[in-house]
Specification:
The chain has 153 residues and is an alpha+beta fold. It is 30% helix and 23% strand. The protein starts with 11 loop residues before the first helix and ends with a helix.
Length: 153
């Protein structure tokens, strides 16, 4: 499998404001509704459709991860505040079974309610899809120390 990193551009021309892509503190809902979400949906869908039409989706793992979650409450002038307790991610292609939801948030979408997933779990899933044993021993510095691949990530 190949690995490609795609980073969201800031679309400065479209908004003529100073904001940090998804870190929307001002005009949060307008930016998401009018710019970020439609653009993300268009680009993400096009990528998956293109990979599928070329017969590459089964061998290409597409992972979308947020940097953090957001509080369910919106503060005046500042938008939803960052919340590190909960974030979302999507996996597509690369042998991942589609339509599967793992984990659940509480009723306010603020904290994990069921089946928390650790960073090591995410790395293990990616490693497995790449054909790397997530439990293999990886030597680290200083010489002589070893960890599992997921612990080293």
């Amino acid at each position: 499998m190949r690995c490609v990193n795609v980073t969201w551009d800031l679309f400065w021309d479209a908004w003529q404001i100073n904001y940090d892509a998804w870190d929307t503190h001002t005009r949060n809902f307008a930016i998401l509704k009018e710019c970020n979400l439609p653009e993300f949906d268009r680009v993400y869908t096009a990528l998956l459709e293109d990979l599928d039409s070329r017969g590459l989706l089964d061998e290409t793992l597409v992972v979308v991860v947020s940097e953090m979650g957001r509080t369910p409450r919106v503060k005046r002038q500042r938008g939803p505040r960052p919340l590190d307790a909960l974030l979302w991610m999507w996996f597509a292609g690369g042998g991942i079974r589609g339509g599967t939801a793992v984990g659940e948030s509480d009723a306010q979408a603020a904290y994990v309610k069921d089946r928390p997933i650790s960073p090591a779990d995410v790395v293990a899933t990616i490693y497995e899809q790449l054909g790397i044993d997530p439990d293999m021993t990886v030597p680290t510095a200083p010489a002589g120390r070893c960890r599992s691949a997921t612990a080293a990530a």
